[in-house]
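step=predict obj=Alpha tocopherol transfer protein like n=342
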Amino acid sequence: MSEESDSLRTSPSAASLSENELPPAPRPPGYVCSLTEDLVTKAREELQEKPEWRLRDVQALRDMVRKDFPNLRTSLDDAFLLRFLRARKFDYDRALQLLINYHSCRRSWPEVFHNLRPSALKEVLASGFLTVLPHTDPRGCPILCIRPDRWIPSNYPITENIRVIYLTLEKLIQSEETQVNGIVILADYKGVSLSKASHFGPFIAKKVIGILQDGFPIRIKAVHVVNEPRIFKGIFAIIKPFLKEKIANRFFLHGSDLNSLHTNLPKSILPKEYGGTAGELDTAAWNAVLLASEEDFVREFCQPVPACDSILGRALLPEGLTSEAQCDDSMRAVKSQLYSCY
């Protein structure tokens, strides 16, 4: 490692500190890369990640947080900060904004983030609303399978589904492979009715999309929608205005044509419910993974936080995180869009 790189990470000596100046916080636990050589190459080509500069880049982001947002309650360890650098292709300013957005999102929507742990969501997990398939796609992306027809609105609100999605994203992003490769979403809209679709109005849509696009360090590489009824045109009309062009272009609507799906996701990685050869869809395995991570989520999401964190007032929230008052007419707009599909 060059002397210049070392100097960027070296704390000032005690002699250089004034009498009233506190020494810098101790350096968090060191990082050990778990990427294969192929993924290191992919990260270099796609994310501008240079292994020889990696720790310098992490330290630069850490220093920015300490300087500009000293009261932000966040982890500053290497592995955690790397998620944000990778998600923004090692652009320091954009990575810092993503980190601030990440925490702002969690403060701004208590219905989703309060007491966020697997044991509080056993009913949603048992419904089969969401799972992660056991095989990745050919690019190495985990496949998040969502089945809205499994949700019964009279049992619990739609925010419980969003909580399970967020838990799953948090678990997936712990993997360095996922940080580099991104994820794929497979959404099965079979049996989704007008009454169920109306729960996903502009207010919810903007919140969720704001988090996925600007408030979470993950790369969404594709969204494959299957078995969508005519009502989905109304759902997508609600979602599309909030999508960035890059993400909107990654939506693929297959209808009931599984051959179309198989051109993107091979049969060998899909369960038989989607014309695949990988056995029946199993939700129990992923549920067990989440439930086994209970203590991690309790530490992260179930600790007391200040009612008002001054740092969030200075941060720019993602566009989707607007107040509910701005969407007072959302249900009328939703129903108008949805009814027009019939």
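step=describe
The longest strand covers residues 220-226.
step=end
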